[in-house]
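anyone seen this seq b4? input:
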Amino acid sequence: MGLPEKEQHYTYADYCAWNDGERWELIDGVPYLMTAPSITHQRILGELHRQLANFLDGKPCEVLVAPLDVRLNALGDNDEDVFQPDVLVVCDETKLDEKGLNGAPDIAIEILSPSSARLDKAIKFNKYQRAGVREYWIVDSTDKTITVFILENGQYVAKCYTETDIIPVHVLEGCEISLPKVFPD
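predicted toks r here
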């Protein structure tokens, strides 16, 4: 199969056939090409992963990083929403297969970039909320803030943290993320 065209509608089965070496996401069957992350993005991702992985060592939940396909609605090959969150936590290992995650993660973390900000703040926000992602973080490396959305009664409730804060991870009791380490001077 050739490269995807914006005007066509695709499923996860189509997505798997592209084999073009690029990273894509599907939103409502529409393909979005993902750009390579910046060094700042990579450093933030690495630190968030390190802190979460250290906490989860020996526990049943697992932290994973992009690129990893998340077939958000658990429709397998027919899913029209395939995301690659920067960091995710999965507590139900039955959702994992060799292709990635089939269903909603417990935590999804997206690190904003100029090309992804609109998708992360609006479209993915709504998709994650509807799919039941229990905790969604939007990381803004420019402002050195993280907005944490906790799912309560089907709706996200937001709290914003700055570079000097410690974030309590709602889904992982006892876990805290040190933002001075995530956003060092």
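The longest strand covers residues 145-152. The mean pLDDT is 91. kinda curious what u guys think
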